[in-house]
Structures are given as structure tokens and as C-alpha cells.
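Example (one chain per record):
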Amino acid sequence: MPKKPYLKSDVTQEMKDQFAAKARELGRTEAGLLRLLIETFLKTNPVEVEIPAPTETKDNYLPVRLSSATKGALLKRASEHRMKTGPYVLALLRAHLSQKPSFTEIELEVLRQTNNELTAIGRNVNQIARALNISIDNVHLVKANEMESVARKVKECRDYVRNLIRANLASWGIERDKEKY
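Predicted structure:
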């Protein structure tokens, strides 16, 4: 049975002794007298209390029983993702419920490296644009094969990220339209 809430207050020893004596005189316990006083006070001084909506907490426990084979497969998949079992199951559930990628730290690091490559390519494109803006005479400095090289690098990065997203979704068991990613 859940424990009931209680009120507590600091009082002087004299107040406590007088309250205990009055409770005995009325044939009540101290707790019983205190409860009676509170009930009487609230009846004569009603208060409109709004009960707050429950907040989302992480203490919702969901027990799940697994066969040995299922647990073994779960441990193997979590290990493949280099994750502990609990966080893996949570990520798996989130991926299935949201139908969106859920990246591990390793995958995020690869995405960061890819982003760094794209940043370097962007700098190269800015240098080319700057050279062209300085003078129309500098058009000869931009060679077609250099521009093709930049376009090829951008396409490689884009394909790499697209394939990473597809692999991530597939690893969580999510099938998506190949055209979207």
C-alpha cells in the first residue's frame, strides 16, 4: 500500500506538550487531532486546486520477457552497434516509432568528417569564385577539369552520406523509399 503524504512543522517543546495534552483530553492522538484541525480549516477556507498534468519521466518501466535465442540476437545486434543493450533497445524503439535515422557515435563521427570534407570543398569553390570576381581576365585560371573535380567530390560526399543514412535505417529495420535518401 503506498505511503500517504504527511505534513510536518517545527514547533517548540512547549507547543508540542500542550498539543499532546489537548489531544489526550479530547480522546485523540496527536496525528488525529492535527488531521481534524486541517480538515476543519479546509472546509471553512475552501481552495480551488489545479492538479498539474503528469510530466514525462524516464521512470516508466516496461518489463519484457525474451527467449534465450531472442536475447542472444539482441545482445549480438547491440554489440554490432557498439552499444549497451538498454540504450540499443531504446534507440531501436525510437527509430521504429519515428521512422527516422538514429545514429551511433561512430556514425556521427563519420558524418562530421564528411561535413569537414564538404567545408574544404566549399573553401575551394569560394577561392575559384573570388578569382573570377577579381577580374574577368582570370577566367583562364579556372580549368574545366578542376570544376569537374570539385563536382565529383561533392557527389562523392553526397552519395556517402546518402548510403550512410540508408544503412542506418536498414540496421534499425526501417525500409524507406530509395529515392528519398
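Caption: The chain has a mean pLDDT of 80.
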